[in-house]
Amino acid sequence: MLALLTLGACQRSETPGLRGSALPDPLPKPDVTLTGVDGKPFAFREATRDKLTLLFFGYTSCPDVCPMHMANIAAVLRDMPFAWQDRVKVVFVSVDPKRDSPARIKEWLANFNPAFVGVTGPTAVVDAFERALYLPEAVTIPAEKPGDYTVGHAAQVIAFTEDGLARYVYPFGTRQEDWAHDLPILLGATPRAAPAPRAAAEPAGAAVAPRLVTALVPLPPGNGPGALYAVFAPAAAPDRLVGVASPLAARMDLHTQAAGPDGRMAMRAVSEVTIAPGERLRLVPGGYHAMFYDAAPLTAGASFPVTFTFAAAGTVTAAAKVVPYAEIERLLGQAEGARP
Amino acid sequence: MNVQWWCSASGVPWEWTWRPYLGVWLVVAALGYGYFKLYRSGAPTKKIPAAGVTGLVLIWAAVDWPVGALGAGYLSAAHALKLLLIGFIAPLLLWLDVHETFAWVLAERPRFARVFNAVTHPLVAALIFNAILLVTHLPPNVNALSASQLGEFGNDMAWLLGGLIFYWPFVTDTRMRHRLAKIGYFFFGTLGHNALAMTLLLTKYPIYRVYELAPRVGGISARDDQALAGTLMLLGGTFFIFTVIGRMFVKWYREEATAMQVTGSR
Question: Which residue of A has its CA nearest to B7?
């Protein structure tokens, strides 16, 4: 079974010089204390002071996202000079305390890099930690095998620069070459490219794409067309969603459901969806949504990349999660209730 | 059971559970039918075309589960193995038993023969073969083709077709008569393959997103997998090239020796 991902996906904005996505507002390091794999308290803020900290919430039974992030970061760190390696701290927070014992976390992380820090703690503390970073809390989802389960969790690595602020996020899909490009810049070893000057006529904030809270695909789409639903955080500036695309689908269109001339509700394609400032972009059943055609076979729990194109703010790429249809309303409602 | 047409990348974790791919069976069956029809249309014989059968079996092994599925969406090394089998080894084996019969087919179909002869001119054939190899290995193409069953099917068929075109001037004497010319053609025509192998072997970071971000299989890292793919292509390809060239030299030597014996006995 797959791990579920991106209940709280992040936006991939155009950050000059960096491949990670810039957070609209840097976030301070949460003051939280968990338990290290040695059984001792791990005060996150203190233990990572003055370090470039890469924080990730995951679980050791995860078959895809978690090992991929850890393996890619480890592979790139291995090639960096020791002095740089020493300035980077990778912190893995388990969202599966039931199965992830300290010994198991330690053994799992050692597969990638024994210097990676594994921590665990009560669910309430881990949830609070995630909320402080505007990440959705992890959810447990029963698997097909009785007693087994997967964990849906945020799929991005959060990068805190050495000044203690979370400035960038690296979603699922970040590659080794992306890390190799960004880590030296984050460490200040390579000068960061100067931000492009904002066009005089462009209103402040117009280039910031709305933050995606969740993107979901209900099963069973079979081999026919399927729907994609998504909820974004309230937009800071007016914009228009003009396209949705995925490498796993031959074609994706924007649709809406509206009453036809005969008064019956029908689906029709639209070229764009307008977003007013302060409003959420909602792609939901019965309203605006995206349809995809000729997609690769989907399995519950799987995820695939989707790119939303905005007229002003450019593109946002995130992973859409495949979930049972019965779960759609609940998960979308949960996403709308999430803090912006 | 989830029956699919062709292997493609799905993003789901790999499981060592057999899966049926209907298209694979149909295509291999169609290939086999066409091949035996062509073989039987030649001189009457009850001999089994061993090389051709081996070629067909290799194609089947390459495109069906598990190699096909692993190569489509999980391991660069399996992708390389698939290329070796479909684009490199099987086409030569397929031609060995039917190239003479196929020459008759060409003779009976002059319009088809004109097109076929144009694309199998040694220079053109080598260019087509290398162009197919290189274009199907450009990272955006690998990522896009592997994402759909149709794309991966097209990719596999392009390799097979490219291989068949490449080997025709090599197996017939209508294009190049002298063995040295054939050896030179074979050697230089496979430089693209070797360049590709070296690129995989020497590139620091994984080239293909589809394999780098696929759930890992057997604990092999994305970088090691890519290096293994390069090694497999380089060693497997080189071994095959030198085996074929070696066989040609042995055959050549035997023919020369026989000729000398005949001359000596006169």
Answer: A296
Q: What is the pLDDT along chain B (266 residues), one digit of tens a residue?
A: 577 899 999 888 899 999 999 999 999 999 999 999 999 998 777 789 999 999 999 999 999 999 999 999 999 999 999 999 999 999 999 999 999 999 999 999 999 999 999 999 999 999 999 999 999 999 999 999 999 999 999 999 999 999 999 999 999 987 788 888 998 998 889 999 999 999 999 999 999 999 999 999 988 999 999 999 999 999 998 899 889 889 888 988 888 888 888 776 65
| Candidate from A72, A173, A297 with C-beta closest to B10 | A297
Tell which of A248, A251, A292, A294 to mutate to test the B interface (max B CBs under 10 Å). Answer: A248
Question: Which residues 6+ apart lie within 8 Å of B143 measured at CB?
Answer: A247, B208, B209, B210
ipTM: 0.85
Buried b (16+ CB within 10 A) or exposed e, A308-317: bbbebbbebb
Q: Is A139 on the interface with B (CB under 8 A)?
A: no
Count CB pairs under 8 A between chains A and B. Answer: 70
Q: What are the chain B neighbours of A71 within 8 Å (beta carbons)?
A: 216, 221-222
Task: Give me the count of residues in chain A.
Answer: 340
Model-wide pTM > 0.95? no
pLDDT tens, A126-159?
Answer: 999 999 998 888 988 888 788 889 898 999 999 9
> B194 CB near a chain A CB, below 8 Å?
no
The distance in angstroms from the start CA to the end CA of chain B is 72
A34 bridge partner residues: A42
Residues of B in contact with A67 (CB under 8 A): 215-216
Distance from CA of B18 to the nearest CA of A (A): 16
- Quick one: closest CA in B to A222, which residue? B2
- In our burial notation (b when 16+ CB lie closer than 10 A, e otherwise), range A262-281 reads eeeeeeeeeeebebeeeebb
Structure tokens at B170: 């090599």
Three-class DSSP category at B47: coil
Proportion of chain B in helix, strand, coil states, percent, rounded to 5: 75, 0, 25
Inter-chain contact B9–A296, Cβ cutoff 8 Å? yes
Contact B147 A297 (CB under 8 A): no
How far apart CA A170 and CA A72 sit, in angstroms, is 12
